[in-house]
Model the fold of this input.
Amino acid sequence: MMIVGIGAVTVMWSDGSIMRELIPNEPLRRLCTGLLFAGGGTAVVLSPLGQRSGGHLNPAVTLAFWVKGQVTGPDAVAYCIAQMSGAVLGVMIVALVGGAAAQSVQLGLTTPGAEYSTGIALGAEFVITFMLMFTILYCVNEPRHAARTPYFAGLLVALLVFVEAPVSGTSLNPARSFAPALLTSVFDGFWLYCVGPVAGAVLAVFVHGWTFGARARAGCAKLFHTERYRCIFTDCSHTLFPVGAVVLHEGDIADRAYVVERGELEVRKRNADGSELVLAKLGPGEWVGEMGLLLQLPRSASVVVTRAASLRKVTIDNFAHVIAEHPTETRELLQQLAGRLHEADRRLVL
Done:
């Protein structure tokens, strides 16, 4: 991320850069810089490396998930060390390749804008990191948006760079500010790029918890789940199933439901002669197993994976919370149930 991001800062803003002539408008050039920086981060989160690690890239994000209880203390420390070290290595590579051009932008050093005090810059870093972390928490807790978390976060970062960079430099990330500060030996005001982002991210955890209650305990510290890499974080509600796996067995006690995030499932009912009837095919955004939770009855059919799937588990407690406090999602669930009953009736008539 730092190679792409600081490389973008160098290309767009260094002395004598041709981009200054091609894009003379500074706000537009700032927007391009933000898109490149955020795009690099998004690409890393979606990459195999990001899928393995969870794609935090930011000590403030990791510490926020530690406060939420989804990252252990030793892992949080190790992640922060890795993030700081990776940032330094990335900026060193840009310094070697960019030479004088990279030095002319102080290797992307973040400092308060000339017209803004340290206090204002601190407040700005606090607010924008709060916005980023709240967005991440909201997305990873929402089945409809979880798979798009890297995209929503990336677009927000690009927008924040465009709007806020003149105030504080839009760090959002202690590791991102630490590396240029270390390599240029300029630590004036560096503390605000630690205090502001960490405080903003941690506050986002509590505000998200107050806002969504018990439901906020769901989700995961991993920003992008796929069936290729298992999740390493605590209390992950995502479950990955290969093709052919039986998610729910006919006749079992209904103790959970799932929301499909990726992949495809089939609901199958066994006939008296041993053959199977496919009752429904399910895709992203659809619930499975909710009827059993709703009625507290044994499973009426089996659910089999037909294309490798990522599912979000919903417990009885979470299900009750959705019914009680989220009328929009309750209506969507009821519409899905009504649609399935209508399709079942149609099949019986035929």
Summary: The chain has a mean pLDDT of 88. Residues 73-98 form the longest helix (26 residues). The CA atoms of residues 31 and 226 lie 31 Å apart.
